[in-house]
Amino acid sequence: MTKYIFVTGGVTSSLGKGIISASLAKLLQARGYRVTIQKFDPYINIDPGTLNPYEHGECYVTEDGAETDLDLGHYERFLNTPTSQANNVTTGRIYQHVIEKERQGAFLGKTVQVVPHITDEIKRRMCLLANDGQYDIIITELGGTVGDIESLPFVEAVRQLRWELGTNNSLVIHLTLVPFLAAAGELKTKPTQHSVKTLLEYGVQPDVLVCRTEHHLSSEIRKKLALFCNVNINAVVESIDAPSIYDVPLLMLKEQLDKTVLTKLKLSTKNDPDLASWKAFLGKLKNPTEEITIGLVGKYVELPDAYKSINEAFIHAGAVNECKVRVKSIAAESINPDNVAEKLKKLSGVLVAPGFGERGLDGKLVAIRYIRENHIPFFGICLGMQCAVIEFGRNVMGLKNANSYEMDQQTKHPVIALMEAQKKVTDMGGTMRLGAYDCEVKKGTKAAAIYGKAKISERHRHRYEFNNKYLDQYEKAGMIASGINPENNLVEIVELKDHPFFVAGQFHPELKSTVANPHPLFVSFVAASLAYHKEKKQK
Q: How would you classify residue 135: left for phi > 0, otherwise alpha for psi between -120 and 50, otherwise beta?
């Protein structure tokens, strides 16, 4: 029978439930168990696809085209296994499904209520991934904080499901904060006690406490928490602030979180976790031989989580190259022809980030022109690729005012056009070109050398595309379409012939970079930036 682990959060948000869930899953996977993680979010949006990145960080896209919470990125990066539509569910999706059933008459005239109809649908979704017997353990992370009104139906669903599953088939991990009061010079357990008390009022007793803390928990603190929160003392787990999220699995191993969980679920602990490759990655990450700075030009740079997967992909690629990559965020709106040299000349490479809308476009175009003319390694993603096409059209090919149809519907040269399939779309949510699509890579190109194979698959999230009416002109001028979708002939990758590294993709390679499999485009871009850095030092 599939076992279930529910992860709740208390005291405050942003404690790192996603990282704890991913770390525990990694340890269980390393012991030989088949594990997956799912996230239940309490907001009423159907998915984060229509949310501004400032609201909720980046929107992570799965292989099957689901627009999901960024925590699914952590799950994939740690476990190196793809997630799907079923791994992220919001309150909006739950209510939408129940209301649609009510309209169809599925409830036979009964009054539709939060309990049992909404909670029944939550429970159904929680168990969905277990239907095909693919997993031994399913970890379910509940978004929000215990005590929030919007999360009550999820907690109630957990209470009911635990009763239905029976003893030893589920457990609850409660992630909480043990704050340090500098004035008193001590850690305080009262917030955790109150958080657990609230959870108990909802009928849920946590089995394990994971305590976020800036200072080590003494044995006295652990005993106090165990006594007043009704848990075993070995189930009080310290989660001290770590230098990197990739340290957390080893910290949880040291705290024996995986062993405690398996014991409570009556599962074997005889196989020690195999973390050799994880430790090797950490060894390279913490002992770089070089250091470079790469600029990230984007619209949402004030919030690091807006480009979470890109930042993590640089960490993976840096470790492969035994190089520390410092990412310098640069607001696209702040770049103009007068200051572009000052902002970019000291960088070893520049990535122009994805985004939507006109804001910051001019700054991106100015940056790309400077990069191209000064032979600085360049990497463009999604809108970053489209900007590279626009800049090249304007400044190399003489296509005056070349633009994207998204930015200017009256442009004489729409070198970036609205995709044919998007022309009749009116709803914004879940209607873009989403998920994995094949791409054929041209022989003899830089892209072919990077990937080392002729056919690849990458994840997409866009409405606009390279306008093939201009393809011949671009290729004659020196911008090569080195990756093409075989089904609809869409240009997926462009590159420049006479440049050390000038590659851009319409897709999002950052979404497929994991600890075990760093993305080759990021690895090659970092390698090119490192070579450029060394060359500059020698001059």
A: beta
323 is catalytic: no
Q: What are the distances in angstroms from CA 373 to CA 157, 160, 376?
A: 59, 63, 8
- Grouping H, G, I as helix, E, B as strand and the rest as coil, residue 310 is helix
Quote the CA–CA distance of 391 and 291 in Å, as a whole number. 30
Q: How buried is residue 101: exposed, middle or buried, by Cβ count under 10 Å (0-12/13-18/19+)?
A: middle
Q: Measured between alpha carbons, how far apart are the two ends of the chain, in Å? A: 65
| Angle (deg, nearest 10), helices 119-127 and 91-103 | 110
Catalytic entry in 74, 316, 413, 508: 508
Inter-residue contact 236 to 201 (CB < 8 Å): no
What tokens appear for 237 in the block? 């787990």
What would the pLDDT profile of 60-95 be if each residue is shown by its tens digit? 999 999 899 899 999 999 999 999 999 999 999 999
Q: Are strands 323-331 and 290-298 parallel, antiparallel or unpaired?
A: parallel
Measured in residues, the chain has a length of: 539
For the question of residue 508 being annotated catalytic, the response is yes
Known catalytic membership, residue 519: no
Active-site residue identified among 58, 67, 255, 510? 510
Only one residue has tokens 């997967």, namely 309
Give the active site residue among 382, 458, 492, 519: 382
pLDDT in tens, 473-502: 999 999 999 999 998 899 999 999 889 999
The position carrying tokens 């000064």 is 374
d(C-alpha 68, C-alpha 74), whole Å: 12
